[in-house]
Specification:
- The protein has 3 domains: 13-91, Nucleic acid-binding proteins (OB fold (Dihydrolipoamide Acetyltransferase, E2P)); 110-259, P-loop containing nucleotide triphosphate hydrolases (Rossmann fold); 267-357, Orthogonal Bundle (Ribonucleotide Reductase Protein R1, domain 1).
- The radius of gyration is 24 Å and the shape is globular.
- The N and C termini lie far apart (88 Å).
- It is α/β, with parallel strands linked by helices.
- A hairpin with a 2-residue loop joins strand 1 and strand 2 (37-42).
- Helix content is 31%, strand content 20%.
Length: 362
């Protein structure tokens, strides 16, 4: 059973200190998950683990369960006695969350303890600034540091124009340009990966995430597929796993990373320019539509902000607010917003009744 250098797996002093709270247990990191079974790396090797009955009884939501990237406390550090048992999950420093499948409002943690997230977008048919704004909101909210990675530069004949468009939405985020055709096309990405640091890749299928990871691994470890003719990528990642790179860095590759919803997003950072402009509006609750002395509308009129960016900001704010609600609840929220200016639903009903009585001659 191969041993692991836990420092190369991201075990920092922060986690070591917390682990000392649990006597007679061993610290490990979840490197993959399949249903209720977890692969956990410890200093003495890799274990198959399940969660304890007490842990299962104590959890309140899906997000409390272990996820790929978690540091956990297990009852053993060798596989000789069967499956290990996970008793605790150490406090996460970052987490990517999505809405659980089905109609439940529950949240599911997809991956945790990520230092840097590479938001991948190809420079051909996949280039979409509005989708990028969504990913940036989710990345900032996770507490990881986002880096934008533009792939397939060899297929782009107007790179300066696309980079200029990107400047308006990047808001201080580093932008890397890569090409799968060039041997050194991934070196800019490699410079962000350090021993013990955990990296995640998000973006549409087919934009080159698996190709980049394979380059970093120096082998074809992950299956890759190009974007289809309809510009929609094929799913290539079918399981959640943590991959240790030869350089000591760690990559988390999971199919759930491309399905993150807006129930958890930091739009203040993703739209820092609009947030800053909003502070200069005359009204603190300005909707940036028809109010006088609106700094956001002035920026649009002056050519410093695009209508499309503002529209997407408003759309994502609404989506985050309505995420997880059923159709009836969403409709109630919309009606409440619609009648807010009339003093709420009660006054709105009164107004409708008065108008109805006037029409009937009462």
């Amino acid at each position: 059973m191969s041993k692991f250098d836990m420092s190369k797996l991201g075990l920092s002093q922060r986690f070591i200190t917390e682990s000392t709270l649990y006597a007679d247990l061993y610290v490990g990191r979840v490197i993959s998950q399949h249903k209720d079974l977890y692969k956990v790396a410890t200093e003495t090797g890799e274990l198959t683990a399940t969660i304890s009955g007490k842990f299962r009884f104590a959890v309140k939501t899906l997000s409390d369960y272990p996820a790929v990237g978690d540091f956990v406390m297990v009852d053993r550090n060798d596989a000789s006695g069967g499956n290990a048992v996970i008793h605790h999950v150490l406090t996460r420093k970052s987490a990517f969350i999505r809405k659980a499948a089905g109609t439940s409002k529950d949240e599911q943690v997809v991956a945790t303890n990520i230092d840097t997230v590479f938001i991948c977008m190809s420079l051909n048919h996949d280039f979409n600034l509005r989708r990028l704004e969504r990913y940036l909101g989710v990345a900032w909210d996770s507490q990881a540091i986002p880096v934008i990675v533009l792939t397939k530069a060899d297929l782009c004949d107007n790179l300066p124009q696309k980079l200029s468009e990107l400047d308006a939405v990047a808001c201080g985020v580093d932008v890397l340009v890569t090409s799968s055709m060039s041997q050194d096309g991934f070196l800019s990405v490699k410079s962000y990966i350090a021993c013990g640091k955990t990296i995640a890749f998000i973006g549409s299928s087919g934009v080159g995430k698996s190709t980049l990871i394979n380059r970093l691994l120096n082998e074809e470890a992950l299956a890759t597929h190009s974007i289809r003719n309809d510009d929609k990528g094929r799913h290539t990642t079918t399981k959640r796993e943590l991959i240790v790179l030869p350089t000591g860095g760690i990559v988390i590759d999971t199919p759930g990373m491309r399905e993150l919803g807006l129930e958890s997003a930091d739009l203040a950072k993703a739209f820092a320019d609009i947030d800053e402009l909003s502070a200069k509006c005359k009204f603190h609750d300005c909707t940036h539509t028809s109010e006088p002395n609106c700094a956001v509308q002035k920026a649009i009129n002056d050519g410093f902000l695009s209508n499309e960016r503002l529209a997407n900001y408003i759309k994502l704010k609404k989506e985050a607010k309505y995420e997880g609600l059923n159709s009836k609840q969403i409709e109630a929220e919309k009606i409440a917003t619609m009648f807010a200016e009339l003093g709420g639903m009660k006054n709105a009903r009164k107004l409708v009744k008065e108008k109805s009585n006037k029409r009937r001659g009462f």
